């Protein structure tokens, strides 16, 4: 059992420190600028990863590798060390057994990992403890949860509104009181201990899906604001109720409140409720 747990831990640590990429299939009207902006990266990084030039014409159907944000080597080493120490304590083996493999860049082989372990591993039996308690009336618990969620939603709206008028800067997440659309939503939710993905496209996949007629204050609402309506999410805001939402607008260059009708109603792509 310990051998299996060690295998899982090693693969998790190795996976955490690896660079991540996403694949994007070029569609009609796509430009390097649009692709870089939607994925919060730069044209230079996309060109380098795919061996293309800025002036090259993108062919429809071409699959491009998109580099995602990664951690620095110093942060990577620190994270690996912490995870290895925790895993070693849990498995009751030296930390070196884990770090020996996570320091290599090649894929780990099962036999190499198993050979580093003692041949005989005793797993102590832990007696099962069953605690008997008096039954309690749980009828009030759902009410407490509803009250708690309502308070969080109100707080999300309050924090978001404090940023009205803040300047829009593409790629900003709150530094110097500047934001882009997904940087604004992730900033507000992070203030409430909820960590959501960085980009609007990934935020649109996070949390519980919410129907349009079931929207509540604090829900994330998503849009396709591209001129040719390419069909994918590239903008996000926070629902305020009364058919209004707050967002960092690239067109207005600041954080504003807009109505969910006409322009945005036609480009509405759905809603999510992170928790």
Task: Give me a quick take on this structure.
The protein has 275 residues and is of the alpha+beta class.
What's the SSE blueprint?
Layout: H1 2-16, E1 21-25, H2 32-38, H3 43-50, E2 63-67, H4 73-91, H5 95-102, H6 110-115, H7 141-161, E3 167-168, E4 178-179, H8 181-190, H9 200-203, E5 208-210, E6 220-223, E7 235-241, E8 244-249, E9 254-259, H10 263-266, E10 268-273
Parallel strand pairs: 3-4
Antiparallel strand pairs: 1-2, 5-10, 6-7, 6-10, 7-8, 8-9
Helix pairs in contact: 1-4, 4-5
Q: What is the number of strand segments?
A: 10
Return the string of H and E elements: HEHHEHHHHEEHHEEEEEHE
| Mean pLDDT across every amino acid position | 79
Structural class: alpha+beta
The CATH topology label of the largest domain is endopeptidase fold (from Nostoc punctiforme)
The CATH architecture of the largest domain comes to: Alpha-Beta Complex
What level of helicity do the residues show? Answer: 25-40%
**Strand count, sense and closure of the main sheet?**
6 strands, antiparallel
How is the largest sheet built, in terms of strand order?
5-10-6-7-8-9
Total helical elements: 10
CATH class categorisation of the largest domain: Alpha Beta
Counting structural domains, the number is 3
Any idea what the shape is? globular
Distance between the termini: 33 Å
The CATH superfamily name of the largest domain is endopeptidase domain like (from Nostoc punctiforme)
Strand content: 15-25%
Radius of gyration: 24 Å
Task: Catalogue the unreliable spans.
Answer: 104-111, 119-123
């Amino acid at each position: 059992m310990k051998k299996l747990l060690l295998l899982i831990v090693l693969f998790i640590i190795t996976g955490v420190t690896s660079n991540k990429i996403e694949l994007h299939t070029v569609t009609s009207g796509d430009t390097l600028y649009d692709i870089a902006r939607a994925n919060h990266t730069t044209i230079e990084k996309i060109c380098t990863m795919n061996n293309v030039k800025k002036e090259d014409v993108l062919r429809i159907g071409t699959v491009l590798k998109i580099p995602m944000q990664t951690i620095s080597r110093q942060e990577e080493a620190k994270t690996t060390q912490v995870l290895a120490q925790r895993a070693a304590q849990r498995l009751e083996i030296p930390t070196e057994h884990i770090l020996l493999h996570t320091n290599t860049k090649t894929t780990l082989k099962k036999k190499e990992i198993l050979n580093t372990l003692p041949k005989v591993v005793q797993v102590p039996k832990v007696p099962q403890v069953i605690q008997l308690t008096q039954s309690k009336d749980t009828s009030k618990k759902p009410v407490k949860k509803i009250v708690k969620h309502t308070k969080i939603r109100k707080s999300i709206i309050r924090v978001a509104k404090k940023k009205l008028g803040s300047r829009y800067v593409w790629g900003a997440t709150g530094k110097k009181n500047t934001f882009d659309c997904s940087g604004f939503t992730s900033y507000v939710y992070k203030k409430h201990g909820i960590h959501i993905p960085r980009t609007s496209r990934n935020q649109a996949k996070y949390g519980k899906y919410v129907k349009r007629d079931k929207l509540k204050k604090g829900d994330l609402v998503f849009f396709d604001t591209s001129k040719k309506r390419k069909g994918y999410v590239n903008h996000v805001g926070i629902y305020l109720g009364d058919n209004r939402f707050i967002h960092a607008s690239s067109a207005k260059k600041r954080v504003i409140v807009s109505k969910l009708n006409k322009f945005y109603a036609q480009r509405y792509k759905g809603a999510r409720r992170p928790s």
